[in-house]
């Protein structure tokens, strides 16, 4: 357990070191270019100006983007939607920080034309940084040091200790799943070349193909409901219909999307729709 937690801390530190480094790279590049009127600043003032701007941008992204990724309506949605909303949210404090920094250099006045130019610059620069942030932070880092690679295969328990009603746990998925997460799988989510496995005890990211993960669960009672999601039949609390799609509310609090090809089957498995039907 200690090694598992240590690897997660190392992964977090490396990821944020990379993201902070990219922020400083943005700052150095824009300072060198003298972008958005900063060419009028003294060299050291220009470097300091952009460094402050991007350290604030990094801090805002570190708070905003994980919250958006954890919000059920956006968790399984498009990355573009999260980046757009994140840019809209962070642009408000970034406007005041950038305006204050620019006014301190005496190169900016709050007239309509300059306000518009500043807002446009914040959206362009902030959106580009948040796009890279979301792209890099949503992928495991690095692949060679993943938690799963350091997790030894799970030894086969003695036959007398296994419950006769327990689902089969053979296959690559259960060999790589950390033992402390148990074997009561609630759902799987596909994340690029990785699979996020949610159990009743937590979740872990495993390097493997989604198809191989599904093969490992072939003996369990569950259903694929989306090209990127599989859920245990017993984990569903209710199904909410939204037009030609739906969402499953799971007992661990997760919301899983149901795509149109799986909608009819999902309705048969989990009963009548509850909630508001989209117009």
UniProtKB/TrEMBL annotation:
Protein name as it appears in the record: LytTR family transcriptional regulator
Keyword check for Transmembrane helix: yes
InterPro entries per record: LytTR_DNA-bd_dom
Tree of life domain: Bacteria
Keywords, alphabetical: Membrane, Transmembrane, Transmembrane helix
PROSITE patterns: HTH_LYTTR
Molecular functions (GO terms): DNA binding
Transmembrane segments: 16-35, 47-71, 83-103, 115-133
Taxon lineage: Bacteria, Pseudomonadati, Pseudomonadota, Alphaproteobacteria, Sphingomonadales
Domain HTH LytTR-type: 183-272
Xref: Gene3D superfamilies: LytTr DNA-binding domain (2.40.50.1020)
